Amino acid sequence: MASKSNVYAGVAGYVGRADQKGTVGVFTRPAETGRWEHVLADHEAYTVNVHPTDPNVVFAGTADGVYRSTDRGKTFRRTNFPDKVQIWSFLVDANDRKLIYAGGSPISMYRSEDTGETWHKLPDPGMPDRAVMPFACRVMRLAQHPSHPGTIFAALEVNGVMRTTDGGESWSDCSSGLIELAQKPHLKSKIVSDTYNEGMLDGHAIAISPADPDKVIVAVRMGLFETADGGKTWQDMELGRFSPTTYGRDIKVSPADGKTLYTALSVAAASKDGAVYRSTDNGTTWKRFDKVQVHGTIMSVALHNTDPNQVFIGARYDGEIYGTEDGGATWDSLPLPSDVKDIYSVAVG
């Protein structure tokens, strides 16, 4: 596949298998060579993000804070980041492209005002612990309200959803509606914690479409759920009408068309199957988009910031990455080296 763009992958190496020491970090696949390069090898990487207006700038969230590239992924260097914590998510402000947010584990928020060169920690969000898990809770994804840039929602693994209306200075809990839904028998799920609310609190991704800016969609273990009242109440989007699998791992809004959404659906966190579904009506209906067979849970959907025809997906366990550059008509396999373990994030730009 002669790619039009660079492709990036963030790889971690444990996922319940600490005895297996796979290769970790960030891989870059430059468009001009079409070969994967291991550009950051010292730390696990949980998220990779291409700056939406400057593809030279790429952020990597690692076990040692934020790393950044200013040369389209050729090299990554640690930023002036204040702490040694895991970083799981990034958000570039829609109005001020120098303003970047990062979400950490344990639950923490950081902000940069110089395109990620320096960072400072924001006040503790103060979220209660609702499910005791084998890992510290993570800020998995961030979504910004299109009309109110100070309003940001965060999906938490495993702790539901939180929201700020003042650019991260303070946060409110938006999880009570999710817990209420968890009382329904088909939405109860307990794997490793002490509560059957676990599945509904297992937040993986969150998205807001400019086509309907007051509608927030969260992807959790039990499917996709939406709110229209700022997170006070949540409704089941009933993905089972369209897909045989409903474990929601990622959801993205097309930068080119706010009504077009992509979601990664699999069987479970540890599974050997999955698919990407697309909606062209802001989540009302869904159809399968990919034409590939993965052998692990799909962890990430990557959308190009300016070319809607470019979509890439990454599945854990076997270093599987697939991409289309013609809007899903054809797909190519872009496998990472054989010793790579768990893909967490894919980006393109």
Key terms for this structure?
3% helix; 39% strand; Methylamine Dehydrogenase, Chain H; 349 residues; 4-stranded antiparallel beta sheet
Descriptive account of the structure:
- A hairpin with a 7-residue loop joins strand 6 and strand 7 (77-78).
- It is built from two helices and 28 strands.
- The chain has one domain: YVTN repeat-like/Quinoprotein amine dehydrogenase (Methylamine Dehydrogenase, Chain H).
- With 349 residues, the protein is mainly β.
- Strands 3-2-1-28 form a four-stranded antiparallel beta sheet, with no helix packed on it. A four-stranded antiparallel beta sheet has the order 4-5-6-7, with no helix packed on it.
Q: What is the secondary structure topology, with strand pairs?
A:
Elements: E1 7-12, E2 25-29, E3 37-40, E4 45-50, E5 58-62, E6 65-69, E7 77-78, E8 86-92, E9 100-105, E10 108-112, E11 120-121, E12 138-144, E13 152-157, E14 160-164, E15 172-173, H1 176-181, H2 198-201, E16 203-208, E17 216-220, E18 223-227, E19 235-236, E20 247-253, E21 261-266, E22 274-279, E23 287-288, E24 298-303, E25 311-315, E26 320-324, E27 332-333, E28 342-348
Antiparallel strand pairs: 1-2, 1-28, 2-3, 4-5, 5-6, 6-7, 8-9, 9-10, 10-11, 12-13, 13-14, 14-15, 16-17, 17-18, 18-19, 20-21, 21-22, 22-23, 24-25, 25-26, 26-27
